[in-house]
Write a structure and sequence with these properties.
The complex is a heterodimer of chains A (274) and B (204). With 274 residues, chain A is mostly helical. Chain A contains twelve helices and no strands. Classes of the chains: A mainly alpha (274), B mainly alpha (204).
Chain lengths: 274, 204
Amino acid sequence: MTINLEQIFPAARPWVENLVNVWPTPYVKPRFAFWEVGHVLSLIMLAGATIVMNLRLIGVGLTQERPSEILRNLRGIQTAGLVGIVLTGLLIGMANAERLYDSTAFIVKMLALFGGVILTYGASRPAAAAEGRISTAAKAWFALGMAFWLAALVVFTTNGLAPGLLHVITAAALLVLFVTRGRSRIVYAGVLAILLLAQELAIHLIYPGDLTRLDPINFGFGIIFAAWIVGTALLQLSRADRVDEGGPLTKIVGYATILVWVTGAAGGRWIAFA
Amino acid sequence: MEQLLTWLQHGLGKGAGDTAQSWSETLLGSLHFWSLLEGTHLLTLMLFVGTILVVDLRLLGVIFRRTRVSLVSEAILPLTMFGFAFMVITGLTLVFAKPLFYYHNIWFRLKMLLLVLALVNVWVFHSHIQKSQGAWDAEPVPPGKVRAAAALSLLSWIAVIACGRFIAYDWFACGKPQSTFINAVEACKASEEGAYSLQGKRLN
C-alpha cells in the first residue's frame, strides 16, 4: 500500500512542480543546508522542552517542581521550537516539493506533526497547567491527537517504511526503561535482551540469507516488542509509588506526547531513505 | 592514517573471493541498518542537546530561576549522559561505514575539533567552576563565569550540529578544484580523489 500527496491531490502536480520557482524558494535552495540546520536546532528546542515537561507528567525527572512551574519555564522554548520547525520546514519543503509530493514518509511526518501539536497544546500543556488533572476538553483533544498519531504509525508500516518504526519502538523501550525502577527494570530489560537475541537468532541462524522471511520476522518481532513495552508501561501506570500528580491518563498523555514527536522526527528522516 | 582507514574500510572482516565485502562495506550497503543508525544518531542528538539546552539556559539564568541549579542538573543530566553515549556509539558506527570519506571531509574535521572544545568546556565546568556551586546554586542568575561556560557550551554544540549537517554537502570535496588551504586541511593529496588547484590542475 502506498499513500502520498500525489494520490490525495493528483491535480496539484503542476502547482507542486512550479513551487521551486516561487519566492522565496529561489533564495532558499542555494542555502538549503543552512535551513536544514535551523530545522534541526528547532527540533532540538522542541525535544528538550517536550521531554522534560512530559517526563514530569509521567512522574519522573524534575519531580521536585510542580508540573505548572515546569510548563511556565519551558512553554516559550517549546513554542519557539515548534514555530521554528514549521517555518524552516515550509521553506525546505518548497525547495524540495516534488520529492515530498511523492513521499509516504512525508505523510507520516505530517500526521505526527498534527498529532503532536494537538497532544501538546490540547492535552499535555493543559494537564501540566492543572498539576496533572485532565479536563474533559483535554480528554477530547487527547483522543483526537491519538487518532492522528495512530494513523501516522499505521502509514509508517506501509511502502517499505516499516524499519523506520524501530525508532519509535526503541524510544518507547528506553522511555519505559527510564521510568521503571528496581526489580521491574531488571526483568523488563532482561526480556528485551532475550527478545533481541531471539530476533538475531531467527534472522542469522535459523533463516540465514532468506530475504523472503526477513520482513515477516522483523514485523513479528516488532509487534512482540511493542506488546512487551506497552504492557510494562501499563503495569507501571497502575503503580503510584512516586511523585504522581494526576492519574494513569496523565502519564499516558506524557508518554504519547514524547513519542508522537519521535514519530514525526523519524518520519522526517525517512523521507531521505525511502 | 590513510593506510589504517583504507584497511578499516576495505580490508577488515573481508572474506575470500572477489565479491566478498569488508564489515565496513557490508554496513554501508546494508538494507536498512545504516539508515536506522543515521536516524538514531539524529534522535539521540535531539535528546542530548535538547536536555543540555534546558540545563544551560538555567545556568544562564533564563529559565527555572526559582529552582536550584543542582535540582535541574541532577534531574536532567542522566538523560543527557544517556543521549551522549548513544550518540557516540551511533556516530562511531557511521564513521566506520565510510572512514575515508569522513577523514578527508573538512566539516567532519571541524566537527571533531569543536567536539573536543565542547568536551574541554564540560571538563572545565565540572573540575573548576562547579566547585563553588554552593555559593550560586540558588541564585536566579549565576555568576559571569558560569554563564560564560553555559554560553560556550550552547554555541559549541550548535556549531557541532551545523558541521555535522554540512558533512553531507560536497562543497569542499577532494577531487574538486579547491584552494591550497582546503586541499591541505582535508589532506586531499592522500585521498583517492586527489587534490586539484582552483585552476583544475592535479597537485599529486
